[in-house]
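Suppose you are handed a protein chain with no further information: no name, no annotation, nothing but its sequence. What can you learn? This example shows the usual starting point.
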Amino acid sequence: MSHPEEYFQRMNMNTSSSKKLISRSVELVWSHYGERYCVDSDLNFHRETDSGWVDWQPDPSTAVFSSAADGISETRWNAFLEYVPTAERRLLEMFDVGRAGVLAVVALCPGLVADLLATPALAPFVAEHARLRGTETRWEEIAAVHNRGGVYALLEWLGLPSSRQTLTILQKIAEPDLARRLLEPIRVSLWEPETIWFLQHTPTLTERTLTHHCDCVAA
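A reasonable first move is to predict its three-dimensional structure. Written in structure tokens, the prediction is:
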């Protein structure tokens, strides 16, 4: 018969191992050119180095996030989303290819969630802000701009017309998971009066409609 102390030691070891497995089960982990990245259940981003996992500030406009789209299965996403608060989960479930990028927005600018739920197609613009503005990532600045002036200040900061018209058009987009290549043409088109009128009077905007009209304007 095992000694009681040995029994409790084994139980503690098993419990500890179980906790580690539970913790790992709600992480999203993916690789990009041999380097590993992850997001934990508290929405913290990490990168693996020779000395272990370190905090990492994500830039969804980089190829690292393209690898995330390919490397994270739907099954893994579903398990992860069970640990995400309801509002954030509702927003993330609207996206597929761009979901990891929107997750970065949710994690680093949580104050935007309500406005992004109202206008989901705005989320890819926020996620891609570094590329669209030609700068490094500026999550704290985004949060400050939105805190100071709300969604209209955010539109202006992103280079979009700061108007109710812009929000109305973005809300008509049927699939908010916009391709990266469309973001700049859409941004340019929203400054063109004729295109604004057309988009505003189209009941539902599909990617095909946006591609045709916005690419022509941006060309």
